[in-house]
Here is the input.
Amino acid sequence: MSVLEISYIAQIEYLQGLPEVVIKIKPIKGVKAFTNAIKNSVRIKSDKAVAYVTFYENIDRNLIGASANSAIEDTFIFNYGIVLSKKIIKKAVVRNRIKRLIRESLRKLTQEFGENLIVIKTMVISWHRNPLHPNLIKLDEVLSEMRFLFNKILSNNMRYN
Here is the structure.
């Protein structure tokens, strides 16, 4: 075996020994929850959306799975909210489509970013662009916008901690 193969096998064995982090996605419900999430947050902008994010304080990544039985999965709750203005996006069909696409992109991105998202407590997404037709907005467009926001959020969080 070459040195590369041995290091690859060692990495796989190390990763198999680590506990799995589970991130549950829950929607924010209620006016108070939305106002608290927006009021106590950091605002991060992109071309088509704004994200209001609150972070958990003092998350120690080394303590993940440091229980008596390290095979127990650690669960973190990621709360999200979606705000779409009726003034900007007139048709309910378009607003609902954008909400569905944002929810789907959140599901995909939590799988993609995984353990890096444990620092986010709540995230409220506000979409600011109106497409000309409901079919003109695609998942790829929303996914790229949300990926940009997540990268910006995580790099912003690293500066504060």
Notes: The longest helix spans residues 92-113.
